[in-house]
Amino acid sequence: MSATNMQTEAFATTLNASQNPAPWLRSASINDGYPYLFYHPAIIGNGTLANPFIVENSNNLNTVANRVNTGSQPDAVLAFRNGATIVGTGNNSIGDASNPFKEKLFLLMVLVILLIMVL
Predict the structure, then answer these.
(1) What pLDDT does residue 75 have?
(2) Is the dihedral of CA 23, 24, 26, 32 positive or negative?
(3) 58 band by pLDDT with thresholds 50, 70 and 90
(4) End-to-end CA distance of the chain
């Protein structure tokens, strides 16, 4: 395989082999355009409606942001644990024009509020 072929999204996709979140990312401005391994810090849940990411701290929130912003999991569902501590100015925004956040957090929060009101 040529170096040019290894500097493509298709090659990164092959390396990822349907893993979610994708461990191999690619950017023309990083690693000379070759895919690079992205570390996803541990987080509870898998980002689905049945098993949302549980955000307990800034690291968890930034992990979700990275998954959305790289396009590896743009439809992530997340919930904030009661007493979650999100501090500092180093937190990443979740989503951008290229990889928008699908706003499932809002729907989940509405369901939680309705459950609290019923109980």
Answers:
(1) 82
(2) positive
(3) confident
(4) 61
Residue that has been written with the tokens 């706003």 in this structure? 103
Give pLDDT, residue 106: 42
Q: 3-class secondary structure for the chain? A: CCHHHHCCHHHHHHHHCCCCCCCEECCCCCHHHCCEECCCCCCECCCCCCCCEEEEEHHHHHHHHHHHHCCCCCCCCEEEEEEEECCCCCCCCCCCCCCCCCCHHHHHHHHHHHHHHHC
**Torsion sign, CA atoms 85, 91, 97, 98:** negative
**Can you list the pairs that 18-22 forms with residues at least 24 positions away whose Cβ atoms lie under 8 Å?**
20/46, 20/72, 20/73, 21/47, 21/67, 21/72, 21/73, 22/70, 22/72
Residue 36 confidence (pLDDT) = 87
Examine the pLDDT at 90 and tell me if it is beyond 70: no
